[in-house]
Amino acid sequence: MTAQAIEEVRLTAFKSFRREAFRLAPLTVLIGRNSSGKSNALDGLEVLSRLARGEDIAEALESRRSPAGPVRGGLAGCVPHGSDRFELGCSVSTEYGPVDLDVTIQVEPEVQIVEERLSGPTATGRRDVLVSGAPSPHLGDIQASWHNGKPGRNPSGPFRSSRLLTSQLPLRLAGDTEGERDCIWNATVALSALSRAFHLDPVPHLMRQYVPSRDVHLRRTGENLSAAIGQVQRTDPELFRRLEQLLRGLADHDVEALTVTKSELGDVMLALREGQLGLTPAREMSDGMLRFLAVTTSLLTGGGGLDLGSTTVAGARTANERSLMLVVEELENGLHPSQASEVLRLVRQASAENGTSVLITTHSPALLSALESKDHEGVVVCWRDRQSGTSRLTKLTDLEGYPAAMAAGRLGEVITQGRLSSAGRQQVPDYTEFDRLLGIECGGRGS
Ligand SMILES: Nc1ncnc2c1ncn2[C@@H]1O[C@H](COP(=O)(O)OP(=O)(O)OP(=O)(O)O)[C@@H](O)[C@H]1O
Ligand SMILES: [Mg+2]
């Protein structure tokens, strides 16, 4: 059976992207020069994921009250320069074929949905199950029609234009007809897959505090790591031992045990028992170790150990516990290069054990070199189009110079040492363009 997972993200008009898309593999790695658009691409997925929770758009993307804070650049920052709206989409794989969701959001003068379409499998074949019509800004609504599986025109009615129409569909329809049930099913598939995308952005200094022991679902910054690991210790001793084992592999000195200490008030803080040094609380633990613990805890607990936010989708909580899409920027941050293959091993393990898929950005040659050649299918190169200035996405394996590059060495080495450019200089075809896209210094940068 095909897992229901996001298989494509469409950046139709979003920040520096126009009509670009990328496909998601069990491990997707975005690479490219600084400011090429890697984080913008991740922001696109983050925006869709927040909208899928069914909150008011401005609240979902700009609120400073939510634990995740505003999306990078805020709502206005999502809009490509010179425009007043942004457009995003995604496809979610199912055993009956993909469910596609596309949405256009106007930001000025009003924040509102101006177009939305949800399409996917139904009892009578592939159909548009929800299609928006004309918005009426003064009323704060937008007309939309939905599939009801009966001959003749589909029914239509007003939806609130301040939140994703797809998120309103399951509450709006009674599910009396097969067509309505198909609509609800398609909406639920799209919303629950999106709400299972979790962006982890561990901030070591926030992980160094005591936290209430009940605060067990790991948040984006990892600030409640101690309580999350305390929960693992209580409920899954086997997994706790694995975390401990992984930590031992990380440091050069003797790490005897991982423990969770309790304050008089019942708050918890992680600690390490380090040979002759005694007990080292999280307050004194190294940045890299704390980050590593946040990443490994997320990977190994799957959706069940994370704070995936509230969701209006019926049944989504159970789905959350099954599979997860973990997003981590610059995964290598704080890690010694020798750990690159260990982290990739964990990613593969998480994918095999609990269906977790991982989307990362990286600048790390060590991590790129640690990728196996079958992982290269999931490497996406982000680059800027010289003429239009927009960001572009190309699969690494589709680049013309790819076979020659792989013959020249491992991916990380090719990128840092510019092996391809020196090897390819006398060759036809010329690999300057390949070098430019990958940011290889001695390859025709100024050309
Ligand atoms: N709303 C927007 N419209 C057009 N371009 C934008 C918009 N917002 C950001 N950009 C462009 O995207 C760039 C930032 O891209 P991004 O943060 O994705 O880079 P990156 O590839 O993650 O780089 P790094 O490796 O340095 O993190 C900005 O410098 C700007 O050129
Ligand atoms: Mg970035």
Description:
With 447 residues, the protein is α+β, with helices and mostly antiparallel strands. It folds into three domains: 5-196 and 309-378, Rossmann fold (3-Layer(aba) Sandwich), CATH 3.40.50; 205-302, no CATH class; 400-447, no CATH class. The chain has helices spanning 38-51, 57-62, 165-172, 178-195, 225-235, 237-250, 287-301, 316-322, 340-354, 365-370, 402-408, 411-417, 419-424, 432-438, and strands spanning 5-14, 17-23, 27-31, 85-93, 99-106, 112-122, 125-136, 141-146, 156-160, 197-200, 211-212, 257-262, 267-274, 278-281, 325-328, 357-361, 379-384, 391-395. The strands form three sheets. It has an eight-stranded antiparallel sheet, with helices on one face. A hairpin with a 2-residue loop joins strand 1 (5-14) and strand 2. The chain is globular, with a radius of gyration of 23 Å. The N and C termini lie far apart (49 Å). Adenosine-5'-triphosphate (ATP) is lined by residues 15-16, 32, 34-40, 73, 77, 79-81, 382.
SSE layout and pairing:
Layout: E1 5-14, E2 17-23, E3 27-31, H1 38-51, H2 57-62, E4 85-93, E5 99-106, E6 112-122, E7 125-136, E8 141-146, E9 156-160, H3 165-172, H4 178-195, E10 197-200, E11 211-212, H5 225-235, H6 237-250, E12 257-262, E13 267-274, E14 278-281, H7 287-301, H8 316-322, E15 325-328, H9 340-354, E16 357-361, H10 365-370, E17 379-384, E18 391-395, H11 402-408, H12 411-417, H13 419-424, H14 432-438
Parallel strand pairs: 3-16, 3-17, 10-15, 15-16
Antiparallel strand pairs: 1-2, 1-4, 4-5, 5-6, 6-7, 7-8, 8-9, 11-13, 12-13, 13-14, 17-18
Helix pairs in contact: 1-4, 3-4, 4-8, 5-6, 5-7, 6-7, 7-9
Bound molecules: adenosine-5'-triphosphate and magnesium ion.
Magnesium ion binds next to helix 1.
